[in-house]
Amino acid sequence: MKRVNGIRSEELTLLESILRLQGEFRRSLEPLHVTPLQAGVILFLCRHEDGRVKDLATAFCLKMPTVVEVVNNLVGKRWVIKRGSVEDRRAVCLRLSRQGQALARNIKAQIRDVRCDLTPMKEASL
Predict the structure, then answer these.
(1) This prediction's pTM
(2) How many other C-beta atoms can be found within 10 angstroms of the C-beta atom of residue 50?
(3) Dihedral in degrees, nearest 10, Cα atoms 44, 42, 74, 19
(4) Phi/psi at 101 (nearest 5 deg)?
(5) Which helix (H) or strand (E) holds 96?
(6) pLDDT in tens, the chain (126 residues)
(7) What domains appear along the chain, each with residue ranges and CATH number?
(8) From CA 11, how far away is CA 14, in angstroms rounded?
């Protein structure tokens, strides 16, 4: 297998570009001790106050157990607050704590600098 050195982004397939971007995001979030999925949940809740677990699962195309595990982890870190919905007692509403809001600002600052030139879809081969 050839060693990969100095590959230009236009030489990458779309999938390779996505994986590269994911790696760059992961590295940029390491100092905050947050995963890309946790960061996504936090940023989602920044935009959707009182979002529900079901909303997160739908937005990220994830199964409920995966979302519940991430949310419980964020609640344990005191970045997210869970409470029952007023309209539907079966639903759980989520909101960022003050610490979660501060973390959201830090996440935005960290990922602002992540740049990756994605190969245009029409030229990329999966």
Answers:
(1) 0.77
(2) 13
(3) 90
(4) -65, -40
(5) strand 92-96
(6) 344 555 555 677 888 888 888 888 899 899 999 999 999 999 999 999 889 999 999 999 999 999 999 999 999 999 999 988 777 777 889 999 999 999 999 999 888 766 544 334 444 444
(7) 9-112 (1.10.10.10)
(8) 10
